[in-house]
Structures
1.
Amino acid sequence: MKMTIRRTRRTDARTFLSLVDALADYEKLPRPTPSARKRLIRDGFGSRRRFESLLIDADHVSVGYAFFFETYSSFLARPTLYLEDIFILPEYRSKGLGKRLFTACLAEAKRRKCGRMDWVVLDWNAPAIGFYDRLGAKRLKDWLIYRIVL
């Protein structure tokens, strides 16, 4: 299997959105609404990008993506690469593609001179938790995640 990782381009918008839909289906969440889809295109590919993404292709077919952006740590005085999504279509898992995509995100964080890379995982997602544990990631125990939806 030929595998490539590349930056998502505006011409990949339809593919990118289909992978976001696949992640929503996997997580049993609603897919983005039509207005949310327009914002994703604008914010990911417009003149003022709010996030970046990578696609992973297997034999010239996009089978996964990573979605990330920078935050900033006041204590480290360095950026943090925040990994919002990393997803591989279920039929392409256990082939090393997720590890390659995750490693590409780590390399991007290092290239940017980030002090860390952060992400969250759903507590029921045992395959993802096992994946991160095998990579040597540390689960934070002292931090609780809060959210206000606006």
2.
Amino acid sequence: MNRLLKAFLGVGALSLVGCSSKPPPRFEVVVKVQGDPGEPLVNAKVLLQGKQVGKTDEKGRTVLGLKGAEGQTYAFTVQCPEGYKSPAKPTTVTLRRIEEPSKRPEYMVDCPPTTRSVVVAVRADNGPNLPVVYLGEKIARTDDSGAADVLLKLPPNQSFKLSLDTSGDDNKHLRPQNPSATFDVKEKDDIFVFDQEFKRARPHYHWHRRHHTGPTPL
């Protein structure tokens, strides 16, 4: 009798252990990555503990399935594609139960572009056919009306300078000589105007008194 009781109690204990070792629940969260605000970024990798667990689609989204107890936290990092800056800090996810599975928690991550497109519209009044210079290089030339458009790809949060080269012989009477303008690149693509008016200085003539070399009249 004692042996049967012990055997029954042993089976019951095993059953309780089996019931208590249920797999942890699965939580789903959505990671959304954008380049500029409102612009989804594709092919951004999501890493957990150094391992890739997701990659964003054409909508900039990926779904993560995380297992753990409610209240448990995970820290994931986003590796942005080439040409975009990855976040310096990881994003923390806290597992929470939700009543409607279709409304999964969403986490937004920014991957701003590493360069910005800036267009400079050059308008040189009375300055036709002038070279536009950037960092010592001639990158454009104004047309017969004095207009030119310059496109540059530059890192944000820095300044750059353009100048108009008037060193040619045909332009030595233009004033001012070699004017320049400085612009600031911001955290977005931008358009600038380089508006410069030129005036022509009047040439100076030097008159020389002729010396009479003939005979002096009586």
3.
Amino acid sequence: MRAGELMTAFPVTVTSQATVAEAFDLMRDMDIRHLPVVDGGALVGMLSDRDLAYLNVGALLTDQGADAVRRELAIPVIKVMRPDIICVEPETDVTEVIELLLEHKIGAVPVIRPGTQAVVGIVSYIDVLRAVQETLADDEESG
């Protein structure tokens, strides 16, 4: 099985100048944990819910007030995203995808068009688990 067969095509993305608030709202509204960050159609970073976990709204409100929270939420995602992107191409074998997820302790990898940085999909650990579940169900039915 290849990444292209497993991926979620046309994933939700943000630009590097989107605010933390915009990214947070998008992730919450779409019920997703990972956002590829793109500029001019090219992948420039990855933002995860873990990257946004630094924002401790309760502590900020208590210690510094609402203005501090507003300032943090207005920060562009380029300041909190991970620029060291681990990505794959559609033809990457799923075993390599799994190795990358495990080795780097990440929850998803963007899938890029070969020879470019254009995002065509994303493979998360959930996608991998769904594929394993389907394979196991097929094995039970045929066995």
4.
Amino acid sequence: MTDNPRRIGRSILAILAGFVAVVVLSLGTDAILHMLKVYPPAGEPMPEPALNALALAYRSVYAVIGGYITARLAPRNPILHVVILGVIGLVLATLGAIAMIPRNLGPAWYPIALAVTALPLTWLGGVLYRPRTAVAAS
């Protein structure tokens, strides 16, 4: 990223777009699964490992999508933007794990897995975008 204000603004928007995509997709899927009664009502514990694994699975896909979006919208250095998004996800997921584990709303491995996978999955989204740009440049 450079000192060019326009490029900095585009960089912030690229990271924000990836972040918003992950949050909207995750919370939207959660809401649908609560509505369909696959998940217990919001705020109630969800101790079933299979349901937590389901949540981890779709949130993992959404993290990859968020990384892809960020890389796609980055004005330059897409992987740097993706790493920044991944670090933001890592920090927020770690804070979430610290807050949620003592509340016993589900197995402790779930928020820990969200934190541990945030950066690598987001990075994967950026890597999946990269080959497309290399082919387009040929």
